[in-house]
């Protein structure tokens, strides 16, 4: 897909924290800059991997403002702004717009289960009308986590009602048939479909999707960029094989603490292991398993992070 606002490889970035669980803005901004220098076209911040719903309303504003103040460009950021509350979703989206972000990733209202398409349409209509345009809205389809999926009918209604505002979707369902159906139905209208799963990057690009927004891009983005640039051929195929292997390695242990463990060992900063409850850091045994799996996948060492632990 040409001219996609976030076309390419986007990391669902981990959020650095201090021992008291407050945001570590210096470390987070540094990580964002490293990602952009090592294969990422853009960054999905404050999503599932970034533990957005473990942060409060003011903290989420602080995190976005903090990394912008430290030199991370707003144009590459897609903050997650979806909350169970309509008011909070609107205000966080307005805030992202005011900071210069081009798009936001919006979960459906996820507390009440089984809402109708009419109810979801009404909720998103309120979001769009209250925000007032000026920023692209990307739908976050992650039914395993939210328990509130986006149907094709609902997406079609939203696109018809709000052309150019409802801009795309991140599909973290792992169901490639669903991603392909969204491409087939809506890509002709400029709707950008992003895979939340690394194993589909090459496939979704070939079928007319826009790219990926993935957790494992915290460690494998340079391989994703090869796939994005080359698309086909031996080099792209080899890079896709690494993406497949790193995704498998990342999910061999609990995903978010596992990725934190990898970055902690790669940087030598134990603070990366800090994670807000109810998540917990990995045990020593799990941490070693995660590290060895990522080594076997071919993602390590990570360029520019020193790799203090590489010889351990």
Summarize it:
GO terms for molecular function: 4-hydroxy-tetrahydrodipicolinate synthase activity. The chain has 312 residues and is an alpha/beta fold.
Helix and strand arrangement:
Layout: E1 8-12, H1 25-37, E2 42-44, H2 57-69, H3 86-98, E3 103-106, H4 117-131, E4 136-141, H5 143-146, H6 152-161, E5 166-171, H7 176-186, E6 192-195, H8 201-206, E7 211-214, H9 217-230, H10 234-250, H11 255-267, H12 284-297
Parallel strand pairs: 1-2, 1-7, 3-4, 4-5, 5-6, 6-7
Active site: 140, 170
GO molecular function, one term: 4-hydroxy-tetrahydrodipicolinate synthase activity
Family: Belongs to the DapA family.
């Amino acid at each position: 897909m040409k001219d996609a606002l976030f076309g390419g490889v986007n990391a669902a970035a981990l959020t650095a924290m201090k021992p008291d669980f407050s945001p570590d803005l210096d470390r987070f901004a540094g990580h964002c800059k490293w990602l952009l220098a090592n294969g990422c076209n853009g960054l999905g911040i404050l999503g599932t991997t970034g533990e957005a719903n473990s942060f409060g309303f003011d903290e989420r504003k602080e995190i976005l403002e903090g990394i912008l103040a430290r030199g991370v460009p707003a144009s590459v950021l897609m903050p997650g702004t979806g909350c169970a509350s309509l008011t909070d979703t609107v205000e966080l989206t307005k805030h992202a717009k005011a900071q210069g972000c081009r798009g936001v990733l919006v979960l459906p209202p996820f507390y009440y289960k089984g809402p109708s398409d009419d109810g979801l349409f009404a909720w998103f209509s309120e979001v769009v009308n209250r925000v007032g345009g000026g920023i692209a809205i990307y739908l976050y389809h992650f039914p395993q986590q939210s328990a509130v999926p986006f149907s094709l009918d609902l997406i079609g209604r939203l696109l018809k009602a709000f052309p150019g505002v409802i801009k795309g979707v991140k599909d973290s369902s792992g169901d490639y048939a669903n991603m392909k159906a969204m491409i087939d139905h809506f890509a002709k209208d400029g709707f950008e479909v992003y895979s939340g799963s690394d194993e589909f990057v090459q496939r979704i690009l070939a079928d007319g999707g826009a790219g990926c927004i993935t957790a494992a891009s915290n460690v494998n983005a340079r391989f994703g960029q090869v796939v994005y640039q080359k698309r086909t051929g031996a080099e792209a195929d080899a890079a896709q094989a690494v993406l497949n292997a790193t995704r498998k390695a990342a999910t061999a242990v609990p995903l978010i603490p596992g990725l934190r463990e990898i970055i902690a060992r790669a940087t030598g900063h134990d603070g990366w292991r800090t994670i807000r409850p109810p998540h917990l850091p990995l045990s020593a045994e799990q941490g070693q398993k995660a590290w060895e799996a990522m080594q076997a996948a071919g993602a390590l060492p990570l360029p520019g992070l020193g790799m203090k632990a590489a010889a351990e």
